[in-house]
């Protein structure tokens, strides 16, 4: 049986496989489901959405029932140029966009995880114009670079503001101008990414993987992970027989 794969890069993470334990949850990211074999249940709708492809806004509570079949799920950080362009073209004030015009599945899987993620992102870049890109404020860009380059510890909001050379209130305000990306939410996303990296790439247990990026304990990591992704981290962080994790 083909293994599920989680490919984590920037500005996106790609999950190719079967969704397990998918309960009501929301994402920090823009989510795109390609060739969805089942139903999507946005919290605000009484009836499920049946469609081939769907784009979900950041923070939209939803669950997905794929009827046990494989699905291609792409999570894109909304503060990235690609995220801004997708938001501008397909979402705007809408919570989701079903069967958006021009969106097509990226094609067959690749043996190289980096190539698979690159192919998916390239197919999206072909749909959008660079004119849609929102220029990131220099202070926000500095803060994001600090978070991405920090290999050991994820700073707090106050520490991040100090390192970026800006007041905490100003940093919070600037992050708030971007769609669905409060600065504390972005920091939490980075902590989740680090925890996955510690567990999958370094072989750390869940307790150690929780503490290193700043979670109080493994229970806090598990609750946060489930809130972001809709399933527990154990299927990814502990059971390598089910999911292969790649960092590109």
Can you describe this structure?
The chain has 248 residues and is an alpha+beta fold. The protein has 2 domains: 4-132, Jelly Rolls (Sandwich), CATH 2.60.120; 138-230, Arc Repressor Mutant, subunit A, CATH 1.10.10.60. Helix content is 38%, strand content 17%. The chain contains 9 helices and 9 strands. The strands form 2 sheets. Strands 8-5-3-7-2-1-9 form a 7-stranded mixed β-sheet, with helices on both faces. The longest helix has 19 residues, at 183-201.
CATH architecture descriptor text of the largest domain: Sandwich
Number of helices: 9
Low confidence ranges: none
Strand content: 15-25%
Mean pLDDT metric = 79
For the largest beta sheet, what order do the strands appear in spatially? 8-5-3-7-2-1-9
Name the quaternary structure: single chain
The major beta sheet can be summarized as: 7 strands, mixed
Category from helices, strands and their pairing: alpha+beta
Whole-number tally of structural domains: 2
* CATH class category label of the largest domain: Mainly Beta
User: What name does CATH use for the topology of the largest domain?
Assistant: Jelly Rolls
Question: What is this entry, summarized?
Answer:
By secondary structure, the protein is of the alpha+beta class. It contains 9 helices and 9 strands. The model has no long low-confidence stretch (mean pLDDT 79).
Key terms:
single chain; 248 residues; alpha+beta; Jelly Rolls; Arc Repressor Mutant, subunit A; 2 domains; seven-stranded mixed β-sheet; two-stranded antiparallel sheet; 9 helices; globular
